[in-house]
Specification:
Shape: globular
Number of strands: 6
Number of helices: 20
Structural class: alpha/beta
Radius of gyration: 27 Å
Number of domains: 3
Order of helices and strands: HHHEEEEHEEHHHHHHHHHHHHHHHH
Largest sheet: 6 strands, mixed
Length: about 500
Amino acid sequence: MNRRSTLQVESCRKTIESVESTCNVQPATCNRFYADWRDRRSHVLALHEKPGLPSERLLQAVWHHQRLWRDRLRMADGRPIRVLHPGFWNRGAGPDFENAVLQIEDERPRSGDVEIDLHSNCWRAHGHDRNPAFRGVVLHVVWEAEDNTTAPTLPLKSFLDATMLELASWLSTDAAESFPENLLGRCASAVGQLSDEKLSELLRQAALARLQRKAGDLEARARQAGWEQSLWEGLFRALGYQPNVWPMLRLAELRPQFQGRPAADAPLWQARLLGLSGLLPAEFKNAPADSAAYLRRAWDVWWRERDELGEFILPRPLWRLNGLRPANHPLRRLALAAHWWADEKLPARLEKWFAESVPDEDLEESLLAPLQAPSDEFWSWHWTFRTPRLAQPQPLLGATRVTDLAINVLLPWFWVRARAGRNTALQAEAERRYFAWPAAQDNAVLRLARQRLLGRDSARGFRTAASQQGLLQIVRDFCDHADALCADCAFPDLVSGYAAVGGRY
């Protein structure tokens, strides 16, 4: 049990003892049991293990809601600073807040990221100075700054708008978890005036634009490499997950190098793809026994082809491996892709899936069937080469990724191919499935967009993948081209005009 867990258990124990003691004298005060527990718990979560220090979680919440004397803020070097926008809380890897807008003294406002730590020396101690993800940081927000601070640093200790105990209690309230109203986008007011029907129609139009854009990309590649190669490259891009799109695409581009060779099974394709990816380890003495056995078999294949294909091998640093969920690791994605390439009938099965009549409620499951790989002797039981064998086998493809493949690749591909062939019936069927497909997994971009545009984090009203795609297209067309203050963004006026011709005021 770690130090934090020990503190929490001890806090709960003391609360129970305190309330039990009180109840022996005044039974009515037992009504305070849960409230007392929450008070003690909030202090454990908000305060650091060392007395007198807040937790980073509390500092992040303070910065997010700007629980500060904002007109008094001064940097560690004494210069005044104005926070025009604190940025958006990044719950993943990288700086704590992204796209903040700050003004130091009379300088022009600058946009960039904000990192929050307890002390200024944490910048080097945590390795931020060597991490490319932190190159966009324009302000280091800390509790206290050391004398040797050189980077732009803002110590918060003297600028809190309440005591630490008051802020600790606030941290456990809904207000601390909510999205600050002053961070809403300028379009939120206009979007809020739209009826549900008008909002749905706006999202539908944006989703259709996104479908057409993705279809156009696939068509452009098809003109160069053919329809099937365009499909493979789209599928590999989607398997890459956001950090690894480009290396996965590059591997897909190598498929023509193997045309004319004898058919290969999945293990052979796995050895090739792992070798070409640069992710096949040369040393595996310390690997688990079953991983070492798999790697020996892979090398038995790869060493015969490595010299011939050496010019195509990707450098390992091209891959982003940190912060990925185990199921999204490129090794498992490549294992799945190898099964696809070993199955020469897969394109025909996808054609058959699109030609068949599929009710809306069966769309996801019906596509999973042709795309799912058979049980893999190794990869059904392992996340990576270093992880132990799983207790239960895990499929190489799940419903979440099937939705991504359908919405981002397969349906746009079928749609644009039908358009190229002037087949309006098939084009309409691709659109029908696109707009009927159930919602994909939620993500940070969607949550932030809902918060800024709609003033809420609820996924209700986004029951289809198309509604999510529409929101993402709005982000791409407008939010990505404006700063956090929405300067010069045309979307608020666009929505107001849209509301004027049919929205609700």
